[in-house]
Amino acid sequence: MLGDNDIILVVNPKGWCKKVKWIPEDVDTYLNAKEYVDTAVVPLYSVSVGGEMKQSAAEAEFITLLTGLLERQFTGRLLLFPPFTYLKDEKSERVLSDLQKWEDNISKGEFKHIFYITSDIDWRMREDQLSGSLIWLPSLPLEQMSDSQKVEMINSQAKQILILFTQIWHKSE
Question: Count of domains in the chain?
């Protein structure tokens, strides 16, 4: 039985949920409720080719499912941006500089809070150079799980992030 604080994630038979898209309709919704939407969520995806390609794809799948669920839970409070995607072997200074440009533009859009969500541990060493909040989560091996296990794991992770979001929002009020 579901409680008041339970989160529901619907997974289709292939194991993925409908991705929230960066489309004009979603942007119109944001523009019409701009005074209430104070939080930007930016997924960070590293792309690797070769031996790390599968891990890179697994991390992107995990972060996509998680951020999609967060967006649905907080529709009207946050806007999910398209993923900031970069090559894993690209110079870290350049990647950081590019993300800081995103951050500057998002901040100009009157967002009070920016959350970056990633499974790339390298960001932990650079988080002090961002004005937004970095949330690093180890990627879960979703491909080896049943659909019900995926739902349970993503819901569990989302609950933890919801607590973090709420704490940060309350601090700024």
Answer: 1
Determine contact, residues 138/160, Cβ cutoff 8 Å.
no
Assess contact for 58 and 143: CB atoms under 8 A.
yes
The string of pLDDT tens digits covering residues 53-72 is 999 999 999 999 999 999 88
- For residue 46, what are its two tokens? 């590293």
> Does residue 41 belong to any structural domain of this protein?
yes
Domain of 160, CATH number, reads: 3.40.50
Residues contacting 93, CB < 8 A, separation 6+: none
Whether this prediction's pTM lies above 0.90 is answered by no
Provide the domain limits for residue 51.
Answer: 24-172
Give phi and psi for 91, each to the nearest 5: -55, 130
